[in-house]
Amino acid sequence: MEIEIREIEIEDYKELLDFMKKVKGETNFLLGYPDEMKLSYEDEKELIKKIKNSETSNHFVAMKSNKMIGCVSFNGNTARKMKHYGTIGISILKEYLGKGIATSLLEKLICWAKEKGIKKINLDVFENNKRAIKLYEKFGFKLEGCIEDGIYDGENYINLLIYGLKID
Fold first, then answer.
1. Quick check: 13 and 50 in contact, CB under 8 A?
2. Which of 127, 15, 119 is nearest to 67 (CA)?
């Protein structure tokens, strides 16, 4: 399977928004539901422009035959006291889970973070998302905390785990 991992481009705005709506409908492990996404295509375009102009934030996408199948976002801080870290989120289309795409996206993101002098990457993950936790731990992420009952999925309260990775 030929997959290209690259930085987001402004021209990706429509596909990114459509991708996020689709992936949020396929899994219960992302924050929010498709109908809660109120961004217009123009709003998404402006967000990508801001990311492209940022020194501390970035998005990488996984493309297969010019189709977006995954993405990882890094939201960094601009305040000097917090510029060294940021938070990530990863989304993969259901049909491509278990094919190494999240691994490739994380590798690309960590390499970029090192180049930018980022020292810490944080993320939140649902306690019952065992596949994601296994991936993060494979990369050396450490459990740093727990927000008890931080997620309500419509039926159950789920703990939200906080993981962090220190980068040398």
1. no
2. 15
Using left for φ > 0, alpha for ψ between -120 and 50, and beta otherwise, residue 25 falls in alpha
Rounded alpha-carbon distances, angstroms, from residue 131 to 24, 50, 52, 70, 98 = 17, 31, 30, 16, 9
Nearest alpha-carbon partner for 21 in 5, 41, 2: 41
Q: Can you give the CATH number for the domain in which 42 is found?
A: 3.40.630.30
Residues with Cβ within 8 Å of 88's Cβ and at least 6 positions away in sequence, in order, are 72, 73, 74, 75, 109, 121, 122, 123
The C-alpha atoms of residue 48 and residue 52 are separated, in whole angstroms, by 6
Q: What's phi and psi for 64, nearest 5 deg?
A: -130, 120
Single pTM value for the model: 0.93
Overall number of domains in the chain: 1
- 87: containing domain: 4-166
pLDDT digits (tens, 9 = 90+) for 135-159: 999 999 999 999 999 999 889 999 9
